[in-house]
C-alpha cells in the first residue's frame, strides 16, 4: 500500500549588526521541530549578506536534521529497534559503515 505525506520546512533569516540568524521549522502536520543557526561576519572581512545567509541557513538545517534524527532514535527505541551502543550512524547498523 502506498503512503504519501507532505512535510513542510520553512526557513526564516534575520540579519542584524553583522550577525545572521536562521530558524528552520519542520511541520509534518502532527508536530513541529525547529533548528537554529547563526553566522557572524568577521569585522575584517567584506560584509556579503548572502554568505552569512547561506552559512546560517545551512547550520539551521544541520541542527534541524540532528533533531529529527534524535526524534527517530527515540521512536526506534520505543519499538525496540535501536542498535546496541555505541551508535555511529543513523538508521540500520549497515548505514554506519562505508558502502553500507
UniProtKB/TrEMBL annotation:
<protein>
    <recommendedName>
        <fullName>DUF1876 domain-containing protein</fullName>
    </recommendedName>
</protein>
<dbReference type="InterPro" id="IPR038070">
    <property type="entry name" value="Rv2632c-like_sf"/>
</dbReference>
<dbReference type="InterPro" id="IPR015057">
    <property type="entry name" value="Rv2632c-like"/>
</dbReference>
<dbReference type="Pfam" id="PF08962">
    <property type="entry name" value="Rv2632c-like"/>
</dbReference>
Amino acid at each position: 500500500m502506498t503512503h504519501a505525506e507532505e512535510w513542510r520546512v520553512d526557513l526564516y533569516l534575520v540579519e542584524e549588526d553583522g550577525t545572521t540568524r536562521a530558524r528552520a521549522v519542520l511541520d509534518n502536520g502532527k508536530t513541529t521541530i525547529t533548528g537554529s543557526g547563526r553566522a557572524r561576519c568577521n569585522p575584517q572581512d567584506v560584509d556579503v549578506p548572502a554568505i552569512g545567509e547561506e552559512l546560517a541557513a545551512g547550520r539551521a538545517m544541520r541542527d534541524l536534521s540532528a533533531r529529527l534524527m534524535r526524534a527517530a532514535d527515540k521512536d526506534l527505541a520505543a519499538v525496540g529497534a535501536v542498535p546496541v551502543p555505541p551508535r555511529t550512524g543513523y538508521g540500520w547498523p549497515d548505514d554506519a559503515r562505508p558502502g553500507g
